[in-house]
Amino acid sequence: MNRIIEEANSLKGEITPPPDKSISHRAVMFASLAKGESRIKNFLWAKDPISSLNAMKSLGVKIEVNDIKEIIVNGQGLQSLREPDDVIDCGNSGTTIRLLSGILAGQPFLSVLTGDESLRQRPMKRIIEPLRQMGAEIYSRAENRFPPIVIKGGKLKGISYEMPIASAQVKSAILLAGLFAKGETTVKEPHKSRDHTEKMLKSMGVDLYIKNNTIKISPPSQELKPFDINIPNDFSSAAFFIGGACLVPNSEVIIKNVCLNETRTGFLEVLSSMGAKIEIFNLKEKAGETVGDIIVKSSSGLKGVTVQGEIIPRLIDEFPILCVIATQADGLTIIKDAKDLRAKESDRIKAMVTELSKMGVPIKELEEGVEIKGPCKLKGTEVYSYKDHRIAMALSIAGLIAEGKTTIKDADCVDISFPEFYSFLEILQK
Ligand code: S3P
After folding, report:
1. Is the separation of the CB atoms in 30 and 67 below 8 Å?
2. Best residue among 28, 169, 193 to mutate for probing ligand 1, ranked by most atoms within 8 Å of CB
3. With left for phi above 0 and alpha for psi between -120 and 50, is residue 99 left, alpha or beta?
4. What does pTM read for this prediction?
5. Does the active-site annotation cover 340?
6. For residue range 181-194, what is the model confidence (pLDDT) as tens digits?
7. Which of 9, 51, 116, 52 is nearest to 410 (CA)?
């Protein structure tokens, strides 16, 4: 499906973005390992977390959904999963395949995991290597590079592992395998990535030692505690409307109940250094996470910045929308140290460079990032999403400030994380 976006006069109003995707995946997976009934409110009913939910069902976990769309997971404990009857389809979801591989590395049965065309081109060696060191038998296509992955798990031992890249998916896979390993498992990241796994496991009674970028986990002596969670809303989905409200003239948008975990909000720090008009209010704690409302106003006079180093993992999913914002900032914006963007749902560096160039943006591809010279008037044209939800949404926001019509090809991929994206866009333009 294609979407046509026209230049907008303003974005005004209040929105509640969809529930957090990372927390939704973890809630359904971790509740499946607990002993007892967990209740998940405000689950993200979008394709990616649904892949995790179906995967846990295929491992024999009893999961029900009530009439108000809450999920009730009847966890039977750490040793309760059973061999799936069929290949597990993780769809488009890197979080599903990588976290689940960590769990399955600890199970004494055979599992095969696959996914869609995009997922089958995403790197898996980064989890296969540490999980093998822990003792799992694990193989995948193309010399252990790409899915499908075959896992025969069980009898793991704790390891000490220094991760070459900061990745919450890899860190989580190792920590989850560590639940089933003999002895202590230590993971160290070069920079801190999102820490929802650590927060949730701690709330379930797991003994975790965290210092700077090092985490140690020991196999629990008791079953994991079930939980009731009301999932806060997704900062990475909110980011598109933060960007939209900054760029479209005469805008003022309030975004409600957003998870503001600081391992996720590097984008806000960058925007404030660019001079964006953003305020946060109503801060509170929810489900062990900091949550707040965000108000964003049109922000003229943005300045170009350099973004690099430790902040990159804290804004990794906001790269596409940050590129769009940079087109309106005065001077050069340089984004570096972000090579892993080439291994997301699409090669996001190449995708943004190719598509923003079509819209007339002076943007240069770097091996590990981009350079964008602003400000520049965008022109509407036909652009491609690469079937990547975040590319589709970022280009749609670009369309709001482009002259004429912008056609986003294959825009229905927004279903992966934000099925209501286009209806929100319409509401804010009324
Ligand atoms: C995620 C971690 C990040 C992020 C992805 C979700 C998670 O991936 O890009 O959208 O839920 O753990 P990496 O761990 O590959 O950086």
Report:
1. no
2. 169
3. alpha
4. 0.98
5. no
6. 999 999 999 999 99
7. 116
